[in-house]
Design a protein that fits this description.
- The protein is α/β, with parallel strands linked by helices.
- It has a single domain, classed as NAD(P)-binding Rossmann-like Domain (Rossmann fold, 3-Layer(aba) Sandwich).
- It is built from ten helices and seven strands.
- It has helices at about 15-25, 35-50, 65-75, 100-125, 150-170, 190-195, 200-205, 210-220, 230-240, 245-255, and strands spanning about 5-10, 30-35, 55-60, 80-85, 130-135, 175-180, 225.
- The longest helix has 27 residues, at about 100-125.
- It is globular, with a radius of gyration of 18 Å.
- The protein binds NADP nicotinamide-adenine-dinucleotide phosphate.
- NADP nicotinamide-adenine-dinucleotide phosphate binds next to helix 1 and helix 6.
């Protein structure tokens, strides 16, 4: 296969699982994250097991100009980009007024700005293909306001609505846009978010990253608008969208309070 997939946040977690599955399907890979060592290790692993090309870019996507530079790097690697996975992201747990504003703005730069800019700069190339796919990773947190996770949840609501809107705009084009909304997944996410105190609770509900990646990719290739992996996550997202907002916010606040 001559086709390439670009995956952000590919060094671990859900992004790494997506990379492995796309390699198995024969895609050449462009892997992006901050940790060069982890990306190179993954590249060696993939090239040992699969007959695909892998290039890596170690970059902090929350930095000014990083998404545009990533798009330039991508274009220097291939003219046959058919899959873009905007997966890199993280959360910060805590009250809005008590978390550092610098840290919170940095999270928004990655969760929102990098996704929008990378998509903008790569869309022309994706439109040149016979068929292309974009999958943005949001969260079940996208379906409600979440006290003590306010900006993270809001950033994922942005990603969900942004994905749906550009999907509509692109409906007569060759580019299909999907949004994957995972619930709790067994990755480094909870630890980076400062949620270690909830590890026991999360362990009861966590899905495996491989399972999330598999469901996500199936939905993306089926051109689904929204993909919620796991029955419990589907049910909780349904209730979050349909029950009175004040009730859902109280339940959400209760879940993430210690
Ligand atoms: N795990 C969950 O419970 C859960 C639930 C819902 C949604 N999600 C979403 O799923 C996506 C993947 O998260 P995950 O659970 O797989 O978490 P993870 O294991 O922490 O992986 C996050 C990935 O993003 C990369 N990354 C982080 N900051 C970056 C930056 N500034 N620039 C470039 N890359 C960066 C990380 O690599 P480096 O550290 O090497 O940069 C890593 O590859 C995120 O968008 C997250 O919000 C996760």
């Amino acid at each position: 296969m001559t086709e390439y997939a670009l995956i952000t946040g590919a060094s671990k977690g859900i992004g790494k699982s997506i990379a492995l599955l796309l390699a198995k399907a024969g895609y050449n890979l462009l892997l992006v994250a901050r940790s060069e060592t982890a990306l190179l290790d993954l590249s060696v692993l993939i090239q040992k097991d699969y007959n695909v090309k892998v290039a890596v870019l170690a970059i902090d996507l929350s930095a000014e100009g990083a998404a545009e530079n990533t798009a330039k790097w991508c274009k220097s690697q291939t003219s046959v980009l058919t899959v873009l996975i905007n997966n890199a992201g993280y959360g910060l747990w805590g009250a809005f007024s008590q978390l550092s504003i610098t840290d919170q703005m940095n999270m928004l730069q990655l969760n929102i700005r990098a996704v929008v800019e990378l998509t903008y700069h790569l869309l022309p190339l994706l439109k040149q293909q016979k068929q292309a796919y974009i999958m943005n990773i949001a969260s079940t947190a996208a379906y409600q306001a979440l006290p003590n996770f306010s900006l993270y949840a809001a950033s994922k609501t942005f990603i969900l609505n942004y994905s749906r809107a550009i999907r509509y705009e692109l409906k007569h084009s060759v580019v299909a846009v999907s949004c994957l909304c995972p619930g709790p997944t067994d990755t480094a996410f909870a630890s980076r978010a400062g949620l270690d105190a909830f590890a026991d609770l999360a362990a009861k509900f966590n899905m495996a990253p491989g399972e999330v990646a598999e469901t996500g990719l199936k939905g993306m290739f089926d051109k689904k608008a929204e993909i919620i992996p796991g029955f419990l996550n589907k049910v909780s997202s349904f209730f979050a969208s349909h029950l009175p907002k004040a009730m859902i916010e109280k339940i959400g606040a209760g879940l993430y309070t210690r």
